[in-house]
Specification:
Length: about 130
């Protein structure tokens, strides 16, 4: 009798990857607010680059996370924490506005969710690999 080999459900594999791509595109779209008639071409290019540094970092780490899910889990959870810290520092320097809370929930909440999905994927993959080695 053949022993059935467990595999990771497809939705657990694909959901964090697809959500990460959508999240990174969302962050890139938010950088388009730098376009202003007062800025020169090179100032606009510089501002676009500065706004897209997180997008470039997350994109590179997503490529690594595609095969190494633990990297994705750590990356996206740390990205969520970093965003909360940046918002708190901004709120302490300036005045706190309530819309900052919605930004924090949207950006860091999504990052936490993606990080948790990558972690679940890594944990299931580890459990399956251990079962195969026995």
């Amino acid at each position: 009798m053949k022993k059935r080999v467990k595999t990771i459900p497809r939705w657990i594999y694909w959901t964090p990857r697809i959500l990460s791509i959508i999240f990174i595109i969302f962050l890139a779209l938010m950088s388009l607010d730098v376009f202003s008639p007062e800025l020169s071409f090179w100032q606009t290019i510089g501002a676009l680059f500065m706004h897209n540094i997180p997008v470039l970092i997350l994109s590179a780490l997503l490529i690594i996370s595609w095969k190494r899910e633990l990297v994705g889990a750590i990356t996206f959870i740390l990205a969520g924490i970093l965003y909360i810290v940046v918002i708190l520092i901004t709120a302490l320097k300036n005045s706190f506005e309530w819309y900052m809370l919605s930004w924090t929930l949207q950006i860091s909440g999504t990052a936490f969710f993606i990080g948790i999905l990558f972690f679940v994927n890594w944990k299931l993959k580890k459990k399956i690999m251990q079962a195969k080695s026995k």
